[in-house]
Amino acid sequence: MSSLNGRTALVTGGSRGMGAAIALRLAQEGADVAITYVHSEAAAHEVVTKIEAMGRRGFAIRADAAHPGDAAGAVDRAADDLGHLDILVNNAGIGVLGPVGDLTLADVDRVLAINVRGVFLASQTAAGRLRDGGRIITIGSCIAQRVPGPGGTLYATSKAALIGLNKALARELGERRITANLVQPGPVDTDMNPAGGPHADGQRALTALGRFGSADEVASLVGYLAGDDAAYITGTELSVDGGHAA
Ligand code: NDP
């Protein structure tokens, strides 16, 4: 029997990259899974088709994490349509890098709206909708632990904010056996950060293992945190970074 049989999940930003791999992993473990997307409608429907091919329920919700109503509404929609909600994976995020002096107010507002406010609002709504024993798993970044060079002020600010949110959620929801954990990936080969991109070699050199991670390697950790075996892990940051922080 799969470990997540009978559970339901929402993965934000599940159309591509790590979010898609996480959605498929949770379905493989037995969960019914809803995903959100903004632009990649065809890719989102492909993920849903794969979830359904595993014999699970899946559906895609167009919900922009930058919009407060969408960020919270997707959680309500997933809980309503799936019948209940056990797992929220806050994965949707964007990276805007550049010298601190070049970042515009619009950059600051957009990154904080998606990477921080959207995660806060989804988690706030999930706090009221998750069943006891549920999971909030948030995708942060290794940059919150170690900033390896210039250009990361805004992105690091946004991902570091998640450390505080995650700890506070764990404290608030622990009495209902709901755990909250922050997964901090290192360089992972996705559209956001391709292993063949111009800055890839420098990132590889910063890891102990000398390589990019795969989306599946992050999904594997999320799958573990979602399951019963991880019931005593909460309020913590877990790195899946090839030794980027070592
Ligand atoms: P990708 O850019 O490859 O995929 C991003 C996903 O998020 C897509 O499904 C996209 O959907 C969705 N998304 C983007 N903006 C929004 C939004 N406003 N509302 C809802 N969904 C949105 O990113 P990754 O898979 O690489 O990154 C996933 C997470 O991991 C992010 O939080 C990122 O910051 C973090 N991370 C990534 C690292 C890396 O090296 N790749 C390293 C450390 C952390 P659509 O296409 O439909 O718009």
UniProtKB/TrEMBL annotation:
Write the record's keywords in alphabetical order, separated by commas: Oxidoreductase
On whether Transmembrane helix is a keyword of this UniProt record, the answer is no
List the SUPFAM superfamilies hit by this protein, alphabetically.
NAD(P)-binding Rossmann-fold domains
InterPro entries in the record, alphabetically? NAD(P)-bd_dom_sf (IPR036291), SDR_fam (IPR002347)
One Pfam annotation, family name?
A: adh_short_C2
Please state which protein family the record places this protein in: Belongs to the short-chain dehydrogenases/reductases (SDR) family.
Q: What is this protein called?
A: SDR family oxidoreductase
